[in-house]
Design goal:
Number of domains: 1
Helix content: 40-55%
Bound molecules: zinc ion
Structural class: mainly alpha
Order of helices and strands: HHHHH
Strand content: under 5%
Mean pLDDT: 89
Number of strands: 0
C-alpha cells in the first residue's frame, strides 16, 4: 500500500468525516465531547485525542463559522419552504413561517456544530 492510498484510507470520505464530526487532520478523533445530559450544549475539545491537532487556533477563529451557519440555515429554510409549497400549496403563510422557525430551531445545535467543523475543514492550520 503506497502512502497516498494509506492517507486516504485514514481520512475517509470528506462528507462523512464532516457529518460524523471527526478531526480534519486525521479523520479519526472526535471534535466534540460526548453529551452527558440531554439538553447539554456542545463543547468542543481543545485537541484531537488521536493526533493532538489543536482545534481552536486563536481567539475569534470561529467567527467565520457564522457565515457557514447562516448558509446552512438559509438552505434549510428554503428546503422547508419548497417542501411545503409542493406538498401543501394552500397552507397559510403564517404556518409556513412557523414551520420554518420550527425547523431552524430543531436544527440549530446541529448547524452550530456542523458550521464549526466545516470551517476547520476549509481553513486547517
Ligand atoms: Zn486528529
Amino acid at each position: 500500500m503506497n502512502a497516498v492510498s494509506k492517507k486516504q484510507l485514514i481520512k475517509g470520505n470528506l462528507f462523512m468525516r464532516i457529518m460524523k464530526e471527526k478531526c480534519p487532520n486525521c479523520g479519526n478523533g472526535d471534535v466534540y465531547q460526548k453529551k452527558t445530559k440531554f439538553l447539554q450544549l456542545p463543547v468542543m475539545k481543545d485537541n484531537c485525542e488521536n493526533c493532538q491537532y489543536h482545534f481552536d487556533r486563536e481567539p475569534g477563529y470561529f467567527i467565520g463559522a457564522m457565515y457557514i451557519s447562516y448558509g446552512l440555515a438559509v438552505f434549510q429554510a428554503i428546503l422547508t419552504f419548497l417542501t411545503l409549497y409542493v406538498f401543501l400549496p394552500n397552507i397559510p403563510t403564517i404556518l409556513v413561517v412557523l414551520a420554518i422557525l420550527f425547523v431552524l430551531s430543531v436544527f440549530s445545535i446541529k448547524n452550530y456544530k456542523l458550521s464549526r467543523i466545516i470551517y476547520i475543514h476549509i481553513f486547517p492550520c
